[in-house]
Write a structure and sequence with these properties.
The protein has 184 residues and is α/β, with parallel strands linked by helices. It contains eight helices and ten strands. This is Glycerol uptake operon antiterminator regulatory protein.
Length: 184
C-alpha cells in the first residue's frame, strides 16, 4: 500500500484533530485518544473523507493487544494502525489494515532487536523515532526493504527534506506549522 502523502499530520487533541480535518491532507495519525472518543473521531473523519491511522498503544482505556486491535479494525475500520507491539501489527495485517511498526533508535541493542522483530513480522511500514538520523534511515531502508516513516524531533523544513532525501517515504509530525508549509 503506497502513500502519496509526504507529510502525515499527527495529533493528540480534538482541537488538533479538527485542524487536520480542515486541511487538504487525506491521511492523519491520532496519537493519543480516549476510547470514548474513538466513535466520534472516526465518524468525523469519515464525514470529511479522511483516512485515519490510530496509535493503538496510546488509546486510553484499551489494552494494546490483538483483541483491542481486532475490535478497532472491525468497529472503526481504520486506514492504519501504529504500534510497537508485534501482536498488534500481526493482527492489523491479518485484518487488511495498514500496519506500521514503531521503532525507537535508542542504542545498538534496541536497533538489533527491532530489526529482528521487523524481519519476522514484515509490517507495511516502519516508523523510525527519532527521524532526524538520516544515515540510519538509509541503512534501515536498505537492510529491511520496508517503507519508512520518519518521526520524532523533526522541527524544521530542512529536517523534513533531509529525511526524505535519506529514504523516508513520509514524515510524521505533530507540528501544524510544518503541515501547512508542506501542504499541497
Amino acid at each position: 500500500m503506497m502513500l502519496s502523502q509526504k507529510i502525515l499530520p499527527a495529533f493528540s487533541t480534538m482541537r488538533e484533530f479538527e485542524r487536520f480535518l480542515e486541511s487538504d491532507y487525506e491521511v492523519g495519525i491520532f496519537l493519543e485518544l480516549h476510547v470514548s472518543q474513538l466513535k466520534h473521531a472516526a465518524k468525523m473523519a469519515k464525514d470529511r473523507g479522511k483516512k485515519m491511522i490510530y496509535h493503538v498503544d496510546l488509546i486510553q482505556g484499551l489494552k494494546s493487544d490483538e483483541h483491542a486491535t481486532e475490535y478497532i479494525c472491525q468497529e472503526y475500520k481504520p486506514f492504519g494502525l501504529i504500534s510497537t507491539k508485534s501482536n498488534v501489527i500481526r493482527k492489523s495485517k491479518q485484518k487488511g489494515v495498514l500496519s506500521i511498526q514503531r521503532m525507537f533508535l535508542i542504542d545498538s541493542h534496541a536497533l538489533e532487536k527491532s530489526c529482528q522483530l521487523v524481519e519476522r513480522i514484515q509490517p507495511d511500514y516502519i516508523e523510525i523515532m527519532p527521524g532526524v538520523v538520516p544515515w540510519m534511515l538509509t541503512e534501515l531502508k536498505e537492510r529491511l526493504g520496508i517503507g519508512i516513516f520518519a518521526g520524532g524531533l523533526i522541527r524544521t523544513a530542512k529536517d523534513i527534506e533531509i529525511a526524505l532525501e535519506a529514504g523516508a517515504e513520509a514524515i510524521t509530525t505533530s507540528d501544524p506549522e510544518l503541515w501547512e508549509e508542506f501542504a499541497g
